[in-house]
Amino acid sequence: MKAKKRAILFFSLIISCLLLHFYCWDKFRVENSYSSHLYPFFSDLLRRCYGNFYFSIGDLIYGLLACWIIWRMAKAVRSIFVQPDKITTSIARGILNLLNVMMMVYLLFNFCWGINYDRKGIAWQTGIEMKEYDSMDLKKINELLLEKVNQSKMSCSINTLTIVSDQDVFKKAIAAYQKSADTFSFLKFNHIAVKPSLWGWLGNYLGYTGYYNPFTGEAQVNTTIPPFTQPFIVCHEMAHQLGYAKESEANFVAYLVSKYSDDEALKYSTYLELFFYANRNLYEYDSTSAIHYRDKLNSLVKQDIKTIIAFNLAHKNNIEPLITWGYDLFLKSNQQPKGMLSYNQVTAFLINYYRKFGSI
């Protein structure tokens, strides 16, 4: 009887997954129903529930889940030796259970947040027409970002602006979102749930600087990375909280928020990150020009770049490439065919924003 119930559950979940895909085919339907109504209500409810906890509930759940998975795997291996005559039945049952769990997690993930991968998105909301760009466009955007990076760094140095603590970073980002909402109402936050990651030290070795937990609505930030890089990461993860699932869109939202901020430290963090993306894009077309713009960064910025390089080298390991590969596959399976390179696509947003408004 249990086997029959598992089979019924299996086929029910398959049908549910197919219905989900049918719903997501229409981007206008997703934007106007899920992304504009259901998701904002549900995510706001999650932030209400978990936002008041200083520590990350999501990180705690993931930690306990990892322990449970290890325990289940150990138990499964043990059963193979204890009952070798039932190994075929056990493996078949285990595979069916695993598939059922994976589909349930997939459906829950999409209901909580993942459907946002299929929305119209920030370009549609801001009226930006996403056109192709060439090397001249890349040179122009590198030039503009170079000026912004050097200018904001000098302003930080003159006014001795530094990041005091992770809570200081969070407050700056929250204030920036509140101000940007005066121009872009869809960037308004009602409740805040931004937390330092409990596993930040682990993230240094696995290669992540922050992430959004769709099951608790919390934005986790690795606060052990160099302080001047953190403001952009916070704004990026908060963009995910608002339903901008694609990495390039979250990067662009972070840019829009920083653009309207009065905080130079936040602007510097953002412009520096965007310069990295745009410069890498230009390097693919014209390596000489890319190096030329990189060399024109002022000495204080170059010191910060050395800090980032030293930090990454200190945490280099053989596991990170495997994690990156897995995350690359995840992105490709969620409407981001370029995988990890999707982050770099924020350059296209910047170029087309400049074409429309004449400035960045």
Describe the structure concisely for a colleague:
This protein is mainly α and about 350 residues long.
Name the quaternary structure. single chain
Largest sheet, in brief, is: 3 strands, mixed
Helix content: 55-70%
Q: Give the SSE order as H and E letters.
A: HHHHHHHEHEEHHHHHHH
The geometry reads as globular
Uncertain runs are: none
Protein structure class: mainly alpha
Strand residues, percent: under 5%
Terminal residue distance? 64 Å
Number of strands: 3
Total of helices: 15
Strand line-up in the sheet with most strands: 1-3-2
- Computed CA radius of gyration, to the nearest angstrom: 22 Å
The residue-averaged pLDDT reads 88
Please, how many domains? Answer: 2
Secondary structure blueprint with pairings:
Blueprint: H1 2-24, H2 27-50, H3 57-82, H4 87-112, H5 122-126, H6 135-158, H7 166-180, E1 194-196, H8 200-206, E2 210-213, E3 218-221, H9 230-241, H10 247-259, H11 264-285, H12 287-295, H13 299-314, H14 320-332, H15 346-357
Parallel strand pairs: 1-3
Antiparallel strand pairs: 2-3
Provide a descriptive summary of the structure in words.
By secondary structure, the protein is mainly alpha-helical. The protein has 2 domains: 2-54 and 84-118, no CATH class; 122-357, no CATH class. 69% of the residues lie in helices and 3% in strands. The protein contains 15 helices and 3 strands. It has helices spanning 2-24, 27-50, 57-82, 87-112, 122-126, 135-158, 166-180, 200-206, 230-241, 247-259, 264-285, 287-295, 299-314, 320-332, 346-357, and strands at residues 194-196, 210-213, 218-221. A 3-stranded mixed β-sheet has the order 1-3-2. β2 and β3 form a beta hairpin. The longest helix has 26 residues, at 57-82. The chain is globular and about 70 Å long.
